[in-house]
Amino acid sequence: MKYIMECLHKKREPVLGFEVDLFTFEDALQYVHNHLKENKGLHIVTINPEMIALGNKNDDFGRVLNEADLVIPDGVGVKLALKIKGVNQENIPGIEFSKKLIGICELEGFTIGLLGAKEEVVQKAAQNLRNEHKNLNITYIRNGYFDEAQEEIICQEVKAVSPKVLFVALGAPKQEFLIAKLKQQMPNTVFIGVGGSFDVWSGNVKRAPEIYQKMGLEWLYRTIKEPSRFKRIFPALPMFLIQVIIETVHENLVK
Asked: Which DSSP string corresponds to 25-53?
């Protein structure tokens, strides 16, 4: 096992101050699987340009991102940023990565927990996952509607059950802050923030057609379906890439 872990030693590349792990989809999955088998915890971040921008504005959030154990590029934005820096890195969609991880948990008997979204959404997501994965053991299900006063109760609930993998769907940065807190109390658990994945798993929201997925353009499909997202993405995405170009030029000049 030690040899396998060494073979999957992480290589990282900084993007605007945040390190991104350079794994293939399968190697990243194997990396997590190895940690599960060795009873080692992880905080997995599926990073995108919006998170990087927020991390550069919010020091606390930036610190949590930098302290994460595995940071995988989710979406075309980070993939393009790495390409600008001369790194050919595949996109690793968080929702697909999470589903593959759930499959491993079913096969290996690792328990999972679902935390986040509306009550009817998380319950329906759990039901659909059980229907799809007959031997999956979901030991914790909780909606994401709680305030700071209730947060400690949530932490105690999760700790009491201690699922091997906890999927947290609260959106950034709330899910990352809660994971960072839980990780201190549960060092042997794998945590991953999954944003709006429960909405998809519940069937309430459909994923983009496969052609959009393959091109890393799910964000574009969602923007077409939800025009209100446009203001959030533009001009944020172009500005993000311009900043990466400037950073890359500066790095090359000082070499």
From this structure: HHHHHHHHHHHHHTT--EEEEEE-HHHHH
